[in-house]
Specification:
2 domains, alpha/beta, 258 residues, Lyase 2-enoyl-coa Hydratase, Chain  A, domain 2
Length: 258
């Protein structure tokens, strides 16, 4: 498809990459970008040649928040009737893992978009924040929920109430990101990680992602039962047979992704 606000490519075998592309607006998020982004992610999710995705922006900004010019005249009734934030739920239905490669500003909706991914590789210049309170609103696409789960209550409160930005190293220490690398390496690092995941058996990868996400929504007892059922399902796959046979025969497995 032809997109106006994003770019797509396959930079490595099994890896689909989506790049936010509104450079003049520091990749500010508007309705068109959200729609095109999730269209592209869903297309990669359906693509049998892709096993993992990378979402990135520019070195200067992953995404510097929502497009305030688009929101300034919006009212509560319009938001409810038109469902401007409904599209964000589409990312939760993506079955394949998504890695955010973040450099520079990841603020407001940009921070929420990065946190909606499954992993985050950050450059040394990355800064994460939820400054919505400074314009009289609050996070509305997952910020209060995902940030609190990632970094804990007191840090999340300061970020959202005190307009504190987390540096890349602070985000790493708090458990928000996987790793911090130089600016000239963060995109390659994320792609390398995505390629490694894409080389794994696809059914197992999907079920692991699903079970980890369920850990935030279920009690321990329900989560353990859910994990066990998913574990049993994998014993009915061709890849379970191939993986265990290859291990016994001391050879690399040849995954069928079935």
């Amino acid at each position: 498809m032809a997109y106006e606000t994003i770019l797509t490519e396959t930079p490595a075998p099994g890896v689909g990459l989506v790049r936010l592309n509104r450079p003049k607006a520091l990749n500010a998020i508007n309705a068109q970008l959200v729609s095109e982004l999730f269209d592209a992610l869903e297309a990669f999710d359906r693509d049998e040649t892709v096993g993992c995705m990378v979402l990135t922006g520019s070195d200067k900004a992953f995404a510097a928040g929502a497009d305030i010019k688009q929101m300034v005249e919006t009212d509560a009734v319009t938001l409810m009737l038109e469902g401007d934030f409904t599209d964000w739920s589409r990312i939760r239905r993506i079955g394949k893992p998504i890695i955010a490669a973040v450099s520079g500003w990841a603020l407001g909706g940009g921070c929420e978009m990065a946190m909606a991914c499954d992993m985050i590789v950050a450059s040394e210049t990355a800064k994460f924040g939820q400054p919505e309170v400074t314009i009289g609103i609050m996070p509305g696409a997952g910020g209060t929920q995902r940030l609190t789960r990632a970094v804990g209550k007191v840090v999340a409160m300061e970020v959202m109430l005190g307009n504190r930005n987390l540096t890349a190293q602070e985000a790493l220490a708090a458990g928000l990101v996987n790793r911090v690398v130089p600016v000239d390496a963060y995109a390659a690092e994320a792609t390398q990680l995505a390629a490694k995941i894409a080389s794994m058996p696809r059914v197992a990868v999907r079920l692991i992602k699903d079970a980890v996400n369920k850990a935030f929504e279920m009690s321990l007892t329900d989560g353990l039962d859910y994990e066990k059922r998913s574990f049993y399902v994998l014993f009915g796959t061709e890849d379970k047979t191939e993986g265990m046979t290859a291990f016994v025969e001391k050879r690399p497995p040849e995954w069928k992704n079935r």
